[in-house]
Specification:
This protein is of the alpha/beta class and 401 residues long. The protein is built from nine helices and 14 strands. The relative contact order is 0.16.
Length: 401
């Protein structure tokens, strides 16, 4: 498949393995506890944003694809010190470890229909590479990309949340990302690894949490004592949404879930606060995938929020807007799933505004414990674009079985 995120072939049992995430600028006139910002501000929180690439190795697992210890190239976004405001922003090419080799240039051109130089112009970032970490203690989100996606497929969301005092760590799930570079060697997406990936991904997320716990204890001086690890959020898009649901069931250190256009066949942890997102016009996971996501919300006994983007598709919740503005299934023009009638998916600015503001309010309440932000979550702030459902909170609290 030449799709950047290689959506799965439509096998009902595997439909879930395709998920995405998004983000946004603060809606004007909403009751966000943030200062007024210029409308085009993409990281409107009080912190400038830093970004760094690291490599984590799990010596206990042999990678089925590389036959080496499981190795995860990982991107980390974080609140940065004030001096980062004056420094140049990260570029798309900065995500390519080892630089732009002919192999990588060819790969990017083939998959994204643009050169690396063109993507450096359109793929905006708000983060500054290797900026100093801000003073303070910041909660952790571990984000899992979609099937054939990559660790930087949701920078719009990561930039935004880091500006409000969150640290986001996102690995390339080796063998299931579009490509990653390990020891100078490009490792491409391998569809044959998909079944392995379903079990690898939650372990990958757990490994990141293990390693970042060590960083917090002093293994990496930049982050020593800077991470608040009491309420870690498992987040993901498409297949990554499935991974987030799965890791929250397997690993009690994950206390909240944000899943974008993704669900799992086994949703056994129905008590952790959860934010579910879907595009009503999603053609990748389709009606069956959306049915599962709605089912997760319906069966949840803990606080649960469902955001349905009426004119959203699968890739609404990703950076695809910055890569190919006419990609479809959430980005640019499309056709309605039921009627084939042509229409335009919700535009980037509005989509990111909605996804980011909902995510931030959810995290502020259930990760940072800011109860004063709960009223924001009890109202649909975007009735024209969104169906918003709430359960397990206050009046909607369900009795536990």
């Amino acid at each position: 498949s030449n799709l950047p995120f290689h959506p799965m072939k439509h096998k009902p049992s595997l439909l879930l393995a395709v998920l995405v995430l998004g983000s946004a600028t603060a809606p004007s006139g909403s009751a966000l506890d943030t200062p007024a910002q210029p409308e085009n501000s993409r990281a409107p929180g009080p912190f400038p944003v830093g970004i760094t690439t690291t490599v984590f190795v799990d010596a206990s697992r042999t990678d089925a694809l590389t036959k080496e210890p499981r190795t995860l190239v990982t991107e980390i976004w974080y609140p940065a010190a004030e001096d980062a405001r004056r420094l140049p922003k990260n570029k798309y090419s900065d995500f390519l470890p080892g630089g732009v080799t002919p192999d990588i240039e060819q790969f990017v051109q083939k998959h994204y229909k643009h050169s690396v130089a063109e993507l450096d112009k359109t793929f905006w970032n708000e983060a500054v590479r290797d900026a100093r970490v801000a003073a303070g203690k910041f909660p952790l989100i571990i984000f899992s990309h979609g099937n054939g996606g990559n660790r930087h497929q949701n920078t719009f969301w990561c930039d935004y949340l880091a500006s409000f005092g969150y640290v986001i760590a996102s690995p390339d799930h080796t063998g299931n990302c579009d490509f990653t570079v390990i020891n100078g060697k490009p490792i491409p997406h391998d569809g044959s690894q998909r079944s392995n990936s379903a079990s690898d991904r939650p372990k990958d997320m757990g490994l990141l949490l293990d390693q970042l716990t060590l960083w917090n204890q002093g293994a990496d001086s930049r982050f020593a004592g800077k991470l608040a690890l009491e309420r870690v959020c498992a987040a993901g898009m498409s297949f990554g949404g499935m991974s987030a649901v799965d890791v929250a069931a397997l690993d009690p250190r994950f206390k909240t879930i944000i899943a974008m256009s993704g669900a799992s066949l086994t949703h056994t942890n129905a008590t952790v606060p959860s934010l579910w997102m879907l595009g009503q016009e999603d053609r990748t996971i389709g009606a069956a995938g959306n049915f599962l996501i709605r089912g997760h919300h319906a069966m949840h006994t803990g606080p649960s929020f469902l955001l349905e983007l009426k004119d959203g598709g699968h890739y609404s919740f990703t950076d695809m807007f910055k890569i190919n503005k006419t990609f479809g299934d959430g980005v640019g023009p499309g056709k309605r799933r039921e009627t084939q009638e042509p229409f335009e998916f919700t535009r980037m600015e509005k989509t990111y505004e909605i996804v980011n503001a909902a995510s931030l309010a959810f995290l502020d309440v259930y990760v940072k414990g800011k109860q004063e932000r709960l009223p924001f979550l009890l109202t649909n702030h975007w009735p024209a674009e969104v169906v918003w459902k709430v359960s397990g909170v206050g009046e909607t609290q369900k009795p536990h079985p």
